[in-house]
Amino acid sequence: xxxTPGFALTVNGSRVELVASREATxxxxxxxxxxxxxPKYGCGLGQCGxxxxxxxxxxxxxxxxxxxxxxxxxxxxxxxxxxxxRWHPVQQAFEDAQAAQCGYCLNGMVMQAAALLARETNPxxxxxxxxxxxxxxxCGTHVEIxxxxxxxAQSMAGGADS
Length: 162
What we know:
The chain is of the alpha+beta class. The protein is built from six helices and five strands. A hairpin with a 2-residue loop joins strand 3 (52-55) and strand 4 (58-61).
């Protein structure tokens, strides 16, 4: 196993110095080395969305990104999106809409939805569904998830929740 020379990246606003194997994925470093359990290991192929994080503000599948490929970049995980003391509006909307069952897909859904709302303040239901179509949920809470994203968009726009 080849080790890369030391490198740095920023994770949830903090600079992190790392030495990792060339084969290490961003997901494994986040979970195993940094103890961040928001991103989940799902398929390992970048297809289910459970491992979604932001790389420089863009939603990305951390299970297929070599950690050395994000050297110098800014990584945001679910833990960096918000905290229990001050949740991101998307996190709050997911709770309010009771959009989680088992919770395994939740990380990816929240991170993908927050990325969408950072780009589009008032997405249509079709746009929300399209954006989240690559995030798999086996529990079938898609209706609640779509409602949560709609609620978050309203909240972020300063509108009333209905």
